[in-house]
Design a protein that fits this description.
This protein has 18 helices and three strands. The protein is mainly α and 393 residues long. The structure holds carboxymethyl coenzyme *A. Carboxymethyl coenzyme *A (CMC) binds next to loops.
Amino acid sequence: TGYITFDEGYGNTGSCKSNITFIDGEKGILRYRGIPIEQLAEQSTFLCSAYLIIYGELPTETQLNAFRSKVAGAARLHENFRHHFEGFPSKAHPMAVLSSMLNSLGCYYPEMSSNNREQDLELFDDAAALLISKVRTIAAMTYRMSLGLPFNFPRKDMRYVENFLHMMFTEPYDEYEVSQEVADALDLFLLLHADHEQNCSTSTVRMVASGGANLFASVSAGVGALWGPLHGGANSAVVRMLEEIHASGDDGSRFIMAAKNGKARLMGFGHRVYKNYDPRAKIFGEAAERVLKALGREDPLLDIAHHLEQAALKDDYFIERKLYPNVDFYSGIVLKAIGIPVEMFTVMFAIGRMPGWIANWKEIAETSNKIHRPRQIYTGYTKRDYVPMADRG
Ligand code: CMC
């Protein structure tokens, strides 16, 4: 197999050419379509950044308004979706529900999910807006279902995040009042997750797309890839870790020792590409402080996170391996402050990452006809003969 290069986990393999997102891991730089994440976090919104990521340019006011109303108009799910929800046990994991629902959604729009590239691309704008909109409705309905609460219909008069919070938290006789701080924090969360080049889930979306599969099937596969604790599942794992540390009375020092001895992994630390501070972690660290202050709340988990961060950044084990906080280190504290339950954290990541998955599907559908098909280094038996049952020992 001499001609096959072995690169475990593709750490040094460029699987595609892309002009969507740029990362310089050594310097801690992240840009969507050339624009630094810090500028977008400060001046843009999730939907505006989603447009930028998908279509390559910042929208004009008219373009943004048209995109917003397309997304807002697509928020409702077909009534028959109730039956899909009823088919899941109440303890079903929301990521399992989300992945199934996104694929099911394609069945309601066969013309957009034809697996005929030309046709799927022709209807791409509708499919993209529909997915960005409905992923949020599915998430909220999953939450309501898990608690046995009635579904809340989306409202056309509300903006993207406000509408989501309304669908999550409004009770029949008690309208949910969305505070500006909470809406801003959630919008920032989604914006910071919107794309991140060839991470595990986006590469999965591209892999599925490379075979010619439609957008719905491709993003549904992306949700499965995102679920694991080393990828999107890290945000809930961080909060669980912080809660355990808090419950044990440790300030984080014992946990750092355990991580150094290989007995635990400091969740929310380390990254395949960033060998420096993940720029999103910096923004989230500040956002966590801001949102807790604005809501007049304290969270002991934030102090533990600060302590862990300071201890790790001074420790040779972490310094030698260039392990810094990543996007997930503080994002869970922000979500917790907003009132999102821990089991839903990775679903929130999926809502945020939807534009990135969509843009990567579009890029591959428009520019490449080459199926992704990695090779392997075979390590099994050489040729051997079949043994009849009677002769097996
Ligand atoms: N805690 C303790 N040790 C670590 C950690 C950590 N969080 N991350 C890496 N290491 C060690 C690892 O044990 C290895 O040590 P040694 O060389 O002695 O064997 C070395 O650092 C290199 O680690 P690796 O696992 O080979 O690195 P990778 O590039 O394959 O993995 C990672 C990257 C993100 C999966 C890993 O750092 C990790 O598991 N972090 C914790 C989970 C996490 O926060 N994931 C979210 C990633 S960012 C958002 C996203 O992609 O969804």
